[in-house]
Amino acid sequence: MDTMIKTPVADSAPRIARERPLKIKARNVDVYYGEKHAINDLSIDIPDSAVSAFIGPSGCGKSTFLRSINRMNDTIPSCRVTGNIEIDGRDIYDRTLDVVQLRARIGMVFQKPNPFPKSIYENVAYGPRIHGFARNKTDLEEIVVTSLKKAGLFEEVKDRLDHSGTSLSGGQQQRLCIARAIAVNPEVILMDEPCSALDPIATARIEELIDELRQNFCIVIVTHSMQQAARVSQLTAFFHLGNLVEVGDTDDIFTAPKDKRTQDYITGRFG
Amino acid sequence: MDTMIKTPVADSAPRIARERPLKIKARNVDVYYGEKHAINDLSIDIPDSAVSAFIGPSGCGKSTFLRSINRMNDTIPSCRVTGNIEIDGRDIYDRTLDVVQLRARIGMVFQKPNPFPKSIYENVAYGPRIHGFARNKTDLEEIVVTSLKKAGLFEEVKDRLDHSGTSLSGGQQQRLCIARAIAVNPEVILMDEPCSALDPIATARIEELIDELRQNFCIVIVTHSMQQAARVSQLTAFFHLGNLVEVGDTDDIFTAPKDKRTQDYITGRFG
Amino acid sequence: MTDTAISAAPRRVSDNAALVAKRYRSERRFKLYGIAAIAVTAVFLVLLFADILVKGLPAFFEHRMMLPVSVSQEAIDPQNSKDPKIIRTGDFDGPIRESFRAMFPDVTSRGDRKKLLGLLSSGAADDFRAMVVNNPSLIGTDAKVPVLLSDDADQYLKGRQTGVAKIAGQGTITASADGEKFKLVTDKTPVLTAGDIVRLNGGAFRVVSADNGAYLAEQVTAPKSLDPANAGAWDIVRFTVTEHNRRIDDQEALWLEQLKEKGVAENGIAWRFFSSGDSREPELAGIRGALTGSILTLLVTLFLCLPIGVAAAIYLEEFAPKNRLTQLIEVNINNLAAVPSIVFGLLGLAMFLNFFGLPRSAPLVGGLVLALLVLPTIIIASRAALRAVPPSIKEAALGVGASHQQAIFHHVLPLAMPGIMTGTIIGMAHALGETAPLLMIGMVAFIVDIPGGFTDAATALPIQIYLWSDLPEIAFQSKTAGAIIVLLVFLFVMNAAAILLRKRFERRW
Amino acid sequence: RDQIRIVGSSTVYPFTTAVAEQFGKTSGMKTPVVESTGTGGGMKLFCAGIGADHPDFTNASRQIKKSEFEDCAKNGVTDIVEIKVGFDGLTVANSKAGPDLTFTKTQLFLALAKEVPDKDGKLIANPYKTWKDVDASLPDEKIEVLGPPPTSGTRDSFVELVMDKGAEGIDSLKALKKSDAKAFEKVWKSIREDGAYIDAGENDNLIVQKLEANPQAVGIFGYSFLEENQNKIKGAAIDGKSPSYETIASGEYKVSRPLFVYAKKQHVGTIPGMVEFVKEYVSDKALGEDGYLASKGLVPLPGDDFKKTKAAAEAMETLKGDQLM
Amino acid sequence: MSGTYFAIMAALVLAGFFLGAQRARGVRGDQAGMLHSLPAYHGLYIAAAVLTVMMVIFVVGAPLASHYVVSQGLGAFDPSEVAEQLHRDAALRDIQNLIAGIYQGEPSDKLKAAAAAYSAASSLVYWGLNIFGVLAGAAVIFWGLGRITPELRARNQFERFVKYVLLASSGVAILTTIGIVLSVVFEAMHFFSKVSPIDFLFGLQWSPQTAMRADQVGSSGAFGIVPLIAGTLLITVIAMLVAGPLGLFSAIYMAEYATPRIRSVVKPILEILAGIPTVVLGFFAALTVAPLIRGWGQSFGLDVASESALAAGLVMGMMIIPFVSSLSDDVINAVPQSLRDGSYAMGATKSETIKKVVLPAALPGIVSAFMLAISRAVGETMIVVMAAGLAANLTFNPLAAVTTVTVQIKTLLVGDQEFDSAKTLSAFALGLVLFFFTLALNYIALKIVQKYREQYD
Ligand SMILES: Nc1ncnc2c1ncn2[C@@H]1O[C@H](COP(=O)(O)OP(=O)(O)OP(=O)(O)O)[C@@H](O)[C@H]1O
Ligand SMILES: Nc1ncnc2c1ncn2[C@@H]1O[C@H](COP(=O)(O)OP(=O)(O)OP(=O)(O)O)[C@@H](O)[C@H]1O
Ligand SMILES: [Mg+2]
Ligand SMILES: [Mg+2]
Ligand SMILES: O=P([O-])([O-])[O-]
Q1: Domain limits at B41?
Q2: 3-state DSSP call for residue A184?
Q3: Could you tell me if residue A201 is inside a domain?
Q4: Would E103 be classed as within a structural domain?
Q5: Most C-beta atoms within 10 A of its C-beta, which of A59, C142, C178, D234?
Q6: More confident of the two residues D295 and E211
Q7: What's the pLDDT band for E278 if we cut at 50, 70, 90?
C-alpha cells in the first residue's frame, strides 16, 4: 500500500506525534459525496494516548473526515472514500476487514447526545452484549459499572440504572454516550462536537473527562470552538474548504500559525 | 407607563446612545416560552442611525429579544412578553397598536435568507403592494429599483428581475431580503445572524452594506461572532442566560468589559 | 451607493386607513371560509350518522310474545328417544300456533286464521326448538316460550308502518245494520272521520263516510251484539296511514293492538341480530356470518401484509441500494397505493380464481386480494415510521459496533413499531370497509351458515350491507342501517386505537 | 365439498334462498350457498363441468336452451333435472301517489322502442315525450321508465313478451315482419336510449324507492317486488288485466314467464343433501299454494302442474334434449 | 401431505437453531469474544439453511410428486379415455371419491385398479417426500455444525439471508403490478380482437348487449366508452367542486389558524370521514341524498333524475375531502416557517401571507393532492354503483343520470360471468383504461410532489 502514499507527512512532525506511538495514519484521502468533493487529498498522523482536535469553519469537512475513520460514511450511499487510512498499520478500507468489528474498536460520540431510549443500564450493556463480551450477568454488570465510573457518571445514576437514558440531563446523556462507547473497550474514541449541545457547566465536565480519558485512549475531537481545542487538545488540525491546511501541536497552532488562513481564522477574521 | 419602569438605564450611558436620538427603549422586559423564562428583566436603550449588536452564547435569548421588538414572538403561541418596549416613545405592546402596521415599520432580516419563491421583482414589490404604497406601476417599479440599489444588488440582477429569488446565491439572497425589508421604508431593521449561512466573501459584502445602511436606519443585529460585532457595530449588548449582562460602546466592550462574564466570553473562556 | 436616498416622500403605513380596514376585512373573511369549510364537513358527518342511526337503531330490537305452550310429547318426540337429533326434527310450530290461536278464540274462518298466523315469524319456533333441544326435560311440561313476530308485525309495532291514536268514545254509540254496511250513531258531536276504526262490543267497524250525523261503516270484526255502547265501553282507533298504503291491514293491526293492550307483545333487544347468519326473513337475519367472514378475511390480510409490508419497508428504507430495481419497486408501491380497488378485484378474479383455481367466495381469496390492496398503505406508513426514528439512534448503535441489521432490529424497528401498528390498523380498517374487490370474487352470495374456515363460502360485512340494501322487504332497510352501525363501530374502535397508539407513543426527538 | 352451491337468475334468487334457508334449518345439513349471476351466467357456470368446482344447481328465469343443453353435454353434464317452480309476472308499476295506469302492449312498444313507424309507416326515431303523445287516453306525464339493464333475463323477457307482441299490433310493422323479418326484429329489440328508458341496475329495491319518490316514473320488474311493496306501488293493467296471483297463475295476465331450477343429477351422492334440497323445494310447505314461496311473491303452479312437477322432481327425472328449443 | 412436511420442517429448523447455538457455545468455551459471531447467530445460520433447503425441496418436489401420483392413477385407464382434460378431471374425482369412500354406485374394475395405483403412489410419495425432507434437513444441520468455527461469519451469512427475504418482500409490489397488468391485459386483448380499439375509445355509444347466447335478443352491442368517460368525469368534476374548496380551506384553517385544541378536534373528524366505507356512503347517497336533491329540484321546477350525477358527485366529494385536506395540510406545513416569518415581518396579515406566499409556494403540492383526489374519485366504485345509474347518457347535465367506468365493470362482471363474450371481456378493457388513467394521474402527481420536495429539502 505504501506505493500509494504520495504526500509524506512534513518532516517537521509535531512534537506530540513524535512523543507518542502512531495510532491513525491517513494518506491522500479524498472523500466525495456524489459529485461534491468534500475532502481533498488529506494526509495526517494521529498519535495514541493524546487528544487531537479538528477545527475549521463550518462545512470544511471535519465531520466527514472523522466519520471516515470508523467508516461511518459507509452508511451514506453517495459517499465515496479513496486513499488510505490505517489504524495500527491495518488498512481499514481493506475488503476483508469486517466493518462491524472495526467500529467496535473505534468508539464514537456524537454532537447531540443520542442515548438509546432504553434504561441507562441497557444503554451501556448493549455493546458488550452484541459482541458477546460477557458470559454471564455479573460479568456484564461489572462492565457496565466500570464504564459508567470511567465516564464519571456512576455516582450520579447508580440508584436509577433502570431509568431511561433519555431522562438524564444533556451533559449526563453525553457522558452516558461516552460510557457506552467505552464499554466495548475501544482503542480510539471519535467525538464530533460533543459539547455543542451542552451548557457551559456540562461542557466543562466533559472536557475534564476527555482529559482523563486520554491516558488510555486515542481521542479525536471535532470542535467549532477554538477555545475548546486550545483547552483540551495536544494536537490541532485546521481544515478549510476540504483541505487540511495545517497540523501541529496545539500550542504552536494557536500561538504561531504558519498558514495565513489559519491565522485569519483564529484571529476571527472569518468564520 | 413610566411608573412601570423600575430599573433606569445606568447613568453612565454609552457614548453612542448619548450622541444619537433614542429609538428603542426597553424596560423590565421578561419573555417566557410557556414555563421557560427566556429573558429576564431586560432594559436597554437603542439609538437611531447606528448599528447595535447583540452577542452572547447560544440560547442566551438574543433572538428572543430581537423578535420581541417587532412582536414576531406573537406568532409563537406559548410566548409571553411582559414589561415595556417603546419605539419613538410609543408602547408597542399597547393593545390599540396594530401589529401588522408595526411590523411594516420595523424591517427584519433572518439568519437563513428566505426570499419568497417568486421573481426578484415580486419579492421586493410584495411589501409596497400590500401596504398600498404605489399608486401605479411606475411608482412600484421605482420603489423596487431604489430598494435593490440601496441593497447593492441592482447591478447584479438588473437584467433578470423576473428570475426566481431562490435562484440567487446565498449572499445575493440575503441582500434581496434586505432590499425587500427596505422597500417598505422601515425605521428599524432587525437582523438575526444575517451572515451565519454565508461564506466569508458574501459576509464581507453584507457587512459593508450594513455600514452604509446605518446612515438612514436604526439597525439591530444579532451575531454569534464577536469579530463581526466588533467590525460593524457601534453599540454592543452582551447577553448571558437570558440576562443582559452589559451594554456599551462596542470599543469599550471589547477592550474593557466591566463584567467578569463578558470578559470570559470574549476571551473564549466559554461558548 | 448611499446617495440613492429614497426620493419619494416617506410613506407611512398608517396613512391609508381605508386600505388597512379593507385588509382586515379580507382577513376575517378568509378565516371564515376555513371555519365554514370545516363546519360543512362536520354537518355532513352529523347528518350521515343521524340518518343511519335513525334508520338503523330499530334493527337492534324485535317484538316477541311470551306464550304459554304445552311441550307435547307426541309432537316433539313421539318415541321418547331423548335424542337431540330427533327432537330437532319435531313439530314445534304446531304447539306455538295453537297457543297463539287460543288468544283469539273469535277468529274462526280459515282465511282469518291464516292471516292471524301470518303475524308470526316463519322462524317463530326457532327459540322454542333450541330451548327444548337444550333441555329435553321440558317435554311433557308447560312452558313459557318467546315467540317472534313477523317483520311486518314488528314494523307495525315499532310504529314504522303507521302512527296510531286511540281515542276513548264519548257518549253512547249505536251500530245498526244497513244493508251490507252498518250505520253508527253517536249522541255527541261528530268525532269520526273516514278510515277510523270503531271498536265496540268486541267487534270493530271501519268508518267509510259521514252521513249527516251518522256514519256509514263496514265491519272488520263481527261484534258480539249490536247493543248501544256507553262511554268507556267503546273507542276509536285512528291510523295516520290509510290501509291500502300499509302492509298490515286494519284487521291485523287490531289484533296487534290487542296484543299490545294485553301486554303480550314486548319489545326486546334482538340478540339474534348478532348471533345468527343471513336469512331471507328480515326478522331472523343477523350479521354473525358476515362478521365472521370479515374477521377471517382480515386475519388472512393481516397475516400476509404485516410481515411482508414491514419487511419491504425495512428493505426500502434501510437496505435498498439506489438502483433501477429499487426505483421500480418504489414507483410501483406509490402507484399501487392509488390503483382503484375494483382493479384489485379484477386481479383476484383473473389470477386467484381463474388462474390458480382457488375457491370462489372464500375468505382466503378475499384476504389475499385485500392484502395486496392494503400492502402499499402499510409499506408507506411503515417507511414513514422508520424514517421518523432519528438517524442518531442508528448511528449510536453502529458506533458501538452493531451491524446494520442489528441496529435496525434492535433499535430502529422497536421504536418505529407504534407507527407501524398505527399504519397497520388504519390499513386494516380500510380493508374492513372495502367492498368492490370482494364483489368480483364471488363473496356476494346468500350464505346462511357461519363460515368456519378460510376456504368456506363467506361474505363480509360491507357486502352484507350491499346485499341487504338490495332486498325488497322494508325491514331490511333498517337491517342494512343496523349492519352499517356495527361496521362503523368496528371502524371507530380501530381508528380510535390507532389514534390512541399514536398519541401514546408520539415522540418528539 | 359438503355444501350445495347454487348459481343463476336474480329473479329466482329470492325464492331459492328462502328454500335454502329452510333446508338448512330443518335438515341439519349445511345451508346451500346461493349466488346471483343471472340466468345466462348461471347456465355457463353450471354447464362448465361436473365435480366439486362446479355448481350443483342453477336458477333460470327461462327454460334452458337447446344450445346450452348441448354445451352441458359436451362438458360431461348429461343428467340434468328440470324443476319448474312457478311463474313470475313482469309488472309495469308506478307509485301509489301516481295515476292508475292501463296500457296495451302496443302503447308500451310505442313508448319504449327506439324507432317507431310514423303515420306513413316509415321508421323514425321515437318522437314521443309524454304518455299522452303515445295515446290520448294516457296521462299527460313525461315518459320515464326505470327498467332492467341489458344484462338481465328480465329485460330479455320483457322485450320478448311485450315489445315483440306490441310491435305486431301495428299494421305497418306486421307487414314488415312478413317482408323483412330481420328488420322487424331489430325494431322490437331496440329500446330507446334517449333517456326516457333508464337502465336502473339490478337493485330492484332501489327502483321501488325511486318510484315512490317520483310519482310520474314507471318501473319494470318482477311480480315479487310488486307483491312485497304493495303499500308503495301499484301494478298497471296490461291489455286489460292487472297483475295478481290469480291472473298470473291462470294465465290471464299474459306478461309472465315460468321460472326454473336445474339440478345436476351427477352430483347426487357426491354432494350431500341434493335430493333432500329438491324435496324441500317442491314440498307443499314451500311451493304449495299457501307455501312460504308464495308469500315471497312467487306465483305457484296450478294444482295439476304442481303435482306433476313434484312427482318428476322427487324422482329426479332427467331432461331430454329433444324437448327443448 | 404438506401439513406433515411443514411440521417436520418447523421441527428441524428449531433443532438446527438450538444445535447450532449449542455447538457455537461449545467452540467458544469460556473465552468471551473469541467467536466472530454470537452463538445465536450460528443457530440462526443453520436454521436459515435448513429452511431454505427444505422449502426448495417442497416447492420443486410437491408438484412433481402430485404429477407422479396422478399419472399412476390415470395409468389404469386407456390413454384415449383420459385424453381430454375434462375426462381426466372426472376420472380423478372418481378415484378420489372411491378412496375417500364416498363413491356412488358400483365402481368398475378399472376404477378400482386406478384407485389402488393412486393410493399406492400417494402413500409412496407421501413417505418419500417426508423422508427425503428429513434427510436433507438433517444433512444440512450436520453440514452446518461442521462448519462452525470461531472464524465462521455466521452473522454476516445470516444477515445476507435476511436481506434476501426483505428484498423478496418488497418484490411483492412488482408482482402485484405484473399480476394486475396480466390479468387485465390478456382479457382486454381478447376483447380487442372482437371490438376494434378505435370504436372502443372513440365510440359515442355504450350499450354492451352482444349476444350472450346465440339466440339472444337485443344484441346491438355498441362499445364506445366516451359516454362512460364523460359520466365519470361529470361525477368527478362535481366531486372536486365539493372537495376542492372544502378540503383546501379546511387544510388552510387547520394548518394556519387552528389552535392545537381545535386541531385535535377537527383532525379526528376528518379521519372519521376518511374511514367511512364507501358502501355506507353509497347507501346514504342513494336513499337520502338523491331523493332530497330530487325533491328540491322539483320544488324549483327542475327535472332531476332519480339517479342524478349530482347526488353521487356530492357524496363522493364528501368522501374525498379528507384526501384533499390531509395532503394539502401536509404540503402547507412543509412550507418553511421562514417564508411566513419573512412575510409577517413585512407587515402582511395572516391571510395575505397565506394567499401570496404560502399557497403559491405550496401550489405544486396542492395540485398533486388534487390529482390524487381525482384519481380516487375516478376509481371509486360503491358510491356510484349504488347512487349513479346504468344509463350511458352522453350528457353534462348534473341533474341527469350518467354511468361510470367502475359501475360498468361491476355490472358486467357481477351480473353475468362468462369469459368469452365481448360483453364480459369489455369489463377488463374498462379495467385497463381505469388502471392506466389513474396510473398516469398518480405518476404526474408524484413527480410534482418530488420536485416540490426537492425545492425545500
Ligand atoms: N451526506 C452528505 N451529502 C452531500 N454532501 C454532504 C453530506 N454531508 C456533508 N456534506 C458536505 O460536505 C462538506 C463537508 O461537510 P462536513 O459535515 O464534514 O463539515 P464540517 O466541517 O463538519 O462542518 P460543521 O462544522 O458544520 O459540522 C460540506 O460542504 C457538506 O455540505
Ligand atoms: N419557540 C420556543 N419555545 C420554547 N423555548 C424556546 C423557543 N425559542 C427559543 N426558546 C428557548 O429560549 C431560549 C433563548 O432562545 P434564543 O433563540 O433567543 O437564543 P439565542 O441567543 O438566539 O441563541 P442562538 O445563538 O442559538 O440563536 C433558549 O433556551 C431556547 O431554547
Ligand atoms: Mg460537522
Ligand atoms: Mg438565535
Ligand atoms: O337474473 P335474470 O333472471 O334476470 O336472468
Answers
A1: 10-114+185-266
A2: coil
A3: yes
A4: yes
A5: D234
A6: D295
A7: very high
* Residue D51 confidence (pLDDT) above 80: no
> How many whole angstroms separate alpha carbon D279 and alpha carbon D260?
15
Instruction: State how far Cα C334 lies from the chain centre.
Output: 34
Domain end marker among E158, E184, E210: E184
Q: Are residues E290 and E147 in the same domain?
A: no
Flag residues of chain B having pLDDT under 70.
1-12, 268-271
Q: Look at residue A41 and tell me if it is in a domain.
A: yes
Say whether both E231 and E99 belong to one domain: no
Q: Spell out which residues of chain E touch residue B166, defining contact as CB-CB under 8 Å.
A: 455
Nearest CB partner across the interface for E346, out of B103, B118, B166: B103
Residue numbers of the domain that contains E306 = 222-456
Residue B139 identity? D
**Does residue A216 lie in a domain region?**
yes
Residue D42 confidence (pLDDT) above 80: yes
Q: Which residues form the pocket of ligand 5, taking CB atoms under 6 Å from any ligand atom?
A: D 9-11, 38-39, 61, 152-154
- CATH number for the domain that contains residue B194: 3.40.50.300
**Does residue E286 fall inside a structural domain?**
yes
Greatest C-alpha distance within chain B: 57
C450 phi, psi to nearest 5 deg: -75, 120
Instruction: Give me the helix-helix angle, C461-468 and C413-433, nearest 10°.
Output: 20
Would you list the DSSP string of D101-155? -EE-HHHHHHHHBSEEE-TTS-EEE----BHHHH-TTS-S-B--EEE--TTSHHH
Does residue E15 form part of some domain? yes
pLDDT of residue C31: 93
CA B198 to the chain's CA centroid:
17
- Domain end point (choices E184, E212, E231): E184
B-chain residues near C6 (CB < 8 A)? 146, 150, 185
CATH code for position E425: 1.10.3720.10
Number of domains in chain E: 2
Contact D278, D313 (CB under 8 A): yes
E46-82 pLDDT, tens digit per residue, is 999 999 999 999 888 888 888 888 888 888 787 777 7
Q: What is the DSSP string of C288-320?
A: HHHHHHHHHHHHHHHHHHHHHHHHHHHIIIII-
Is E193 a domain residue? no
Asked whether residue E161 falls in the same domain as residue E233, the answer is no
pLDDT reported for residue C54: 92
How high is the pLDDT of residue A256?
Answer: 86
Helix (H), strand (E) counts: chain A: 11, 10
SS3 A268: coil
Indicate yes or no: CB of D205 within 8 angstroms of CB of C470.
yes
Cα–Cα nearest to D113, from D186, D62, D41: D186
Report yes or no on B198 lying in a domain.
yes
Total-model pTM: 0.85
Are C and B close enough to touch, i.e. 3+ CB pairs under 8 angstroms? Answer: yes
Q: Which amino acid is at C252?
A: E
CB-ligand 1 contact for A33 (6 Å cutoff): yes
pLDDT per position as a tens digit, B58-105: 778 888 999 999 898 888 888 899 999 999 888 988 888 888 888 888
Rounded Cα distance between A132 and E24, Å, is 12
Q: E77 and E155: one domain? A: yes
Q: Whose CA is nearest to atom 30 of ligand 1?
A: A59
Tell me: do E261 and E325 sit in the same domain.
yes
Chains D/B: 3 or more C-beta pairs closer than 8 A? Answer: no
- Predicted pLDDT of residue A130: 87
Give the model's pLDDT for residue C29: 93
Question: What's domain C284-505's architecture?
Answer: Orthogonal Bundle (1.10)
Average pLDDT, chain D: 83
Q: Among E448, E453, E255, E245, which Cα is nearest to E364's?
A: E448
- Whether the per-residue pLDDT at A3 is higher than 50: the answer is no
Q: Are C218 and C205 a contacting pair, CB within 8 Å? A: yes
ipTM given for this complex? 0.83
How many structural domains compose chain A? 1
